[in-house]
């Protein structure tokens, strides 16, 4: 067993323990059965179960009145599985990009307005600090984020990006909504995004989106390097390669442009 460090919130721990009761043959359980397994009172269990139901982690069978795992856990399971599959499929192509340009290549997914770095291949001679695997970053100031946003649709942008002021990270960060929307139009026209020192001073990125079989942008890949290594004269070449490999990854994820 892994021993946790720091504060443990008892109600959260109990709620997670309830979810774990549904294993093996325990597809459906009643309040009394859960209370027995947890060694808790029925009233305590009822409150926890009702909360989990309200959030979609459990659902009630209205015929048996018992509870079962909810659709929210299925969604999260698919999300994790897709990310694992995506990482495996993208790895060879990201490696080729990194070897060609001797730069860092990122693979990032997204969730509710943030990018999540799920893989990173660093060049041997230098490392980008801000993009550790598992770390999140704003979408509006990253190449991978803008590459995804350009195709994510107005509803996604309104719900997750423009509800709050756009945070300024560097002097080059886009903070005006109208300027961001204009930038995203440009990204969509040319098929790739450029981060010009918008999240880290001295770093430039070229990114392109990765689509799934529904033609939805599930991720993006980027080539990131010191500004001096990604001068304007080679941006078109780098962008062409990034777009090409992003398409190859998309095809591995079931995408077709037909």
TrEMBL record:
Q: Does the keyword DNA-binding apply?
A: yes
IclR-ED domain spans which residues?
72-255
List the Gene3D superfamilies.
3.30.450.40, Winged helix-like DNA-binding domain superfamily/Winged helix DNA-binding domain
Q: Which domain of life is it from?
A: Bacteria
The Gene Ontology biological process annotation of the record reads: negative regulation of DNA-templated transcription
* Function comment: May be an activator protein for the gylABX operon.
Q: What is this protein called?
A: Glycerol operon regulatory protein
